[in-house]
Amino acid sequence: MTGFDPDTQMPSLQGKVILVTGGTAGIGRTTILGLAKHQPAHIYFTGRSASSADGLTAEVRKLAPAVQTTFVPADLASLAACGDAARALAGRLTRLDVMICNAGIMAVPPAVSADGHEIHMATNHLGHAMLLRHLLPVLEATARLPGADVRVVVLTSTAWRGHPSNGITYGRLGSGYSGFVGRWQAYGQSKFANLLYAAELARRYPAILTVALQPGVVSTGLIGGLGFWDRAMVATSTALLRIPTLTPEQGSHNSLWAAAAGKRADMVSGAFYMPVGQLASHLVAKDKVASDPGQAARLWEWTEKALDRVEGN
What we know:
By secondary structure, the protein is an alpha/beta fold. 47% of the residues lie in helices and 12% in strands. It has 12 helices and 10 strands. Helix 3 (50-63) links the parallel strand 2 (42-47) and strand 3. The longest helix is centred in the middle third of the chain and has 26 residues, at 179-204. The protein starts with 5 loop residues before the first helix and ends with a helix. The mean pLDDT is 92.
């Protein structure tokens, strides 16, 4: 879909309840502002900065006074924090129509989370998996309501195409990836996990429309916070491939399309979409590892065990 205008091409979201992770900055923030224009009942959003959350809440109140917002403090690198936040949220929600897994980090220095996982995999994948573990019952219950259209949108990146040749290297997920190449490998592997997890979520929960999507190359703090050589690499690769750099507003368009504007009957659950609304299953199909259902199933099993260890199951 070219020339997508969320202001005019999105339907009313009246009565809907939405959760956006990483909502206080970048495309998470612009996604929330884009959603608010269409009058959902309530937008919940996660983040780590209370002051940024206050600023966003004020913006939404000015833009759409009837839309309720709630900030959910959560560090996605901490499974315990995500579990606490998700249980508290599940306890107060009576419905959840859309969940946008937007939060993420990119090519940060090597680190291991408090739970013992490589930091990109911990933040970009496992934190969202913990939230979903506790919110899936609410999503499923909402899907059973008359006229419901429940969706989970998982942001990934074309960096998933740089995954290890045999799939995720589970044996290395207990340590950081050092060096320039290492941090990009770690990022790409976490984005591959996003792709696989969306596919498996769609298979296991067919009543919920789940898609993975690439927002585009967006000028946000995610890129601005990189070191010189990392920024140079992004700039050079986008120039060589003639990929336009998007504003945060433009970067939110694929998420907004997937969350509401795309017609459910025309969308493929578990699929990968390029901006805006372009089905890119061919990219997955020609990758033997990405298209192997066994890879997605193995990731699901590994993820469940990682979450169980934190929750004492």
